[in-house]
Amino acid sequence: MHIIGPLVVIADWLLARDRRFLSYAVVPLLLVYPLLWTGVVLVRGATDGWVPYPFLSPEQGYATVALYVFCIAVLFAGIAFLVLAYVRRGRHRDVQLEIH
Length: 100
Fold this sequence. Notes:
Number of helices: 4
Helix content: over 70%
Oligomer: single chain
Number of strands: 0
């Protein structure tokens, strides 16, 4: 999930060029599932103590966990913005070539 998954996504993104144009407005939508998953994990961590990652452990205090979750969400959003900016750069160049 942490190695093969990202490699497959990158390969798909590089090889399949016929994607629909996305706006920056989709970035918050990309964070919905990871944040919901994190909420479920935190509830489970509070009830039975199991969490998949040490930085989500309620034993550190929820302020620390919230800081980790916030930083990871900002990182994910930043990566999404960079990917969209890269894709938009290529699309705008193609459109300008078609107009002229």
